[in-house]
Write a structure and sequence with these properties.
mainly alpha; 16 helices
């Protein structure tokens, strides 16, 4: 069953920031290895590196995405190397074993509802391959979306947030804020109930989307939001990464400011 959200409220929140996306987006990936992989020439690398971070990213989405789609069908070895580039060089996730990552991607591509484990890695490849139906499910995207749902009363359920490394987001753990907003869900009728080892886990099930459904639900929600948010702009309506980039960009700035201005204990 698809989880229900008030997408108009979510869109209204994002409307405040969408015109600033070209300046808000500050991810600046290292792309030199794409020469070695035969995706770009030295000249193209220099040209792309001279662009703003936003324009650079849009170029990479097109060029790398096209190459991934071609090699998926024609060159498994190069496809695997490009997947590793997306996750490690572009995404900055360096800790995992390469063979394990390749197996992760293979499993991801077979499923409509891929495993939540390492979804921040696997969804990067999925979003590059199929930007019309997949987005990157990382901690920033989920953090921003959950805060909007919470603060705007735009839904009754929230997305599990993958582990992240951002200190501002860690300081204001959104899972805690969600639980506090829904405190009655965690108040036991009898204190003995707190002795149950799965007390919090069972209470969380009412608020958080099951991890096995989370990526499927996220993509479906962003498809609706993206179409409304960028209505009239065919390029942006068709590519979910515009909304994903916006959610990513505002997580530890605009969202952080919003949280710290609205929450307080008297």
């Amino acid at each position: 069953m698809t989880t229900k959200f008030d997408t108009d409220k979510i869109v209204a929140y994002l409307e405040r920031h969408k015109s600033d996306l070209p300046t808000l987006y500050n991810w600046n990936a290292k792309i030199e290895r794409l020469v070695e992989l035969g995706v770009l020439s030295d000249k193209q690398v220099n040209e792309i590196n001279s662009l703003s971070n936003y324009e650079k990213e849009l170029q990479l989405k097109k060029v790398v995405g096209q190459k991934l789609n071609i090699t998926l069908k024609t060159n498994k070895d190069l496809f695997d190397k490009l997947c590793l580039w997306v996750i490690k060089d572009w995404g900055g996730i360096l800790t995992a074993n390469d063979n394990d990552t390749i197996k992760l991607i293979e499993e991801f591509l077979k499923q409509d509802k891929p495993a939540f484990n390492r979804i921040a890695s696997s969804s990067k490849v999925g979003a590059y391959l199929f930007p019309e139906k997949n987005i990157i499910y990382d901690s920033r995207v989920a953090y921003s979306l959950n805060w909007i749902i919470l603060s705007e009363n735009a839904g009754q359920q929230y997305f599990p947030i993958p582990e992240g490394r951002n200190s501002k987001m860690s300081a204001f753990d959104l899972n805690v804020l969600i639980r506090l907003k829904n405190i009655s869900n965690y108040q036991p009728k009898h204190i003995e109930h707190l002795d149950h080892k799965l007390y919090i886990n069972n209470a969380d099930k009412k608020l958080f989307i099951n991890k096995k459904d989370a990526y499927f639900e996220l993509n479906n929600l962003i498809k609706i939001i993206n179409k409304k948010l960028w209505s009239g702009d065919n390029e942006k309506e068709q590519n979910l990464y515009y909304t994903e980039m916006l959610l990513f960009s505002i997580a530890d700035r605009e969202i952080f400011m919003d949280i710290t201005s609205k929450f307080g204990i008297n």
